[in-house]
Amino acid sequence: MARVAVIGAGYVGLTSAACLSHLGHDVVCADIDVARIEQLRRVELPIHEDGLADLVAQGLATERLEFVLGADTAVPGAELVLLCLPTPQGADGAADLTALRSAATQIAPYLDPGAVVVTKSTVPVGSTLIVAELIGRDDVAVVSNPEFLREGSAVHDFLNPSRVVIGCDDEAAGARVAELYQAVDAPVLVTDPASSETIKYASNAFLAVKLSYVNAIAAVCEALGADIDAVVEGMGFDDRIGRSYLRPGPGWGGSCLPKDIQALVRMAHEAGYDFDLLQAAADVNADQLERTVSKVLDLLGGSIVDSTVTVLGLAFKAGTDDTRYSPAVELIRRLAQAGAKIRAYDPVATIDADGVTLLDDPYRASDGADVLVVATEWDEFRSLDLARLRATMRHARVVDTRGVLDRAQLDAHGFEHRVIGHGRR
Q1: How far, CA to CA in Å, does 244 sit from each of 96, 211, 236, 405?
Q2: In 3-state terms, what secondary structure has residue 375?
Q3: 261 with 282: CB under 8 angstroms?
Q4: Coil, strand or helix: which one is 324?
Q5: CA gyration radius for the chain?
């Protein structure tokens, strides 16, 4: 078992720290936010992630997990130091490495000889070399080990990874990183740092293309009178295509795909390749949101001013409270700007926005609504009492962007509805 320092107590850092302590490692997790560290010590988590609070509590109870203020406090004595810093999208589309650069510079004097520094967050190709240069020590190795955590199932993904990717120029250092995961059953791919960093971007980009493709096919289904559910089921039987990520929706969002796609487009352009395919996927995603707005306007007869729209779901996907780049939030913003009154409900996520009233119950949220929009695929919405819903609404109109409601039941209860991938009903 290793002594590990995790720098950054955000989504990636907190999940990594809790899971590594669960695997038996001694972990010190550091952040610069005083309030966050105090909250984590009380097992008050800043994110909603299934099973994470239990692992944090377990780690603290067994003293295999500790939260401290400042990287310089966490690093001394650590055999491996994981950099889990935010890399937000900059104004030019490139990833902003300010936090990563700052942390690398800060920890350099405190690293033990022979320590291995690991970049975990999604970073542009070449970042491992940048970190090594900033640390500037021949007795410290820097290794790339990208994370592949899905929000909503991050704990499961960490403890049951589809693969462990390690990018290194020092085989011994790479082997030490691989030992962190010896308790999990997963293939380990050891490659060079540039390839490791590219794997993360290439994986996210492929998912974005697949999601945009199925949304484009859904638009074709609507035009031709085909059933998107039957189409994706038929496609999914083909092993070359698979069933995952073949569900249409209002567009992809979250903290990863939007910024990673733009970062890869920019990296490719700077390297001399115009990644038109990926840019087209981003364009389709933008169009999909506009198509969703149009469905709401269509049900309202084109006039939205002073209408009441209920939006069920705020998070960009079920299982998380993350509203960053959420299609639901952007949909709300556009409808509110057009003059609609918004009433919204989400099981865990919240937003603070003008013209939006948050309710603690989907039926209270639908009270007096002219249109109801299902924007996030929470299981709770699949079992909505449509008769009760119909009784609370001013007009029986539904836009189901996730296909979670039974269309036959919507018909039976007199709802006029628009479902992505299906014609007008």
Answers
A1: 31, 10, 8, 20
A2: coil
A3: yes
A4: coil
A5: 23
Q: How far apart are CA 341 and CA 310, in angstroms?
A: 8
Question: 263 near 95, Cβ under 8 Å?
Answer: yes
Q: Which amino acid is at 250?
A: P
Closest by CA position to 117, among listed 83, 68, 77: 83
Q: Are strands 3-7 and 80-83 parallel, antiparallel or unpaired?
A: parallel
* C-alpha dist (Å) from residue 150 to 12, 160, 211, 316: 10, 12, 15, 12
**Separation of CA 74 from chain center:** 27
Among residues 19, 168, 221, 256, the one annotated as catalytic is 256
The single residue listed with the structure tokens 């020590």 is 137
pLDDT in tens, 37-78: 999 999 999 999 999 999 999 999 999 999 999 999 999 999
Active site residue 256: yes
CA 173 to chain centre: 30
C-alpha to C-alpha distance for 268 and 48, rounded to whole angstroms: 34
Angle at 152 (CA atoms; ends 253, 161), nearest 5 degrees: 105
105, amino acid identity: T
Q: CB-based contacts of 283: which residues, under 8 Å, 6+ apart? A: none
Count other Cβ atoms within 10 Å, centred on residue 46: 15
CA 272, CA 416: separation in Å to the nearest integer? 50
pLDDT in tens, 308-331: 999 999 999 999 999 999 999 999
pTM for the model: 0.92
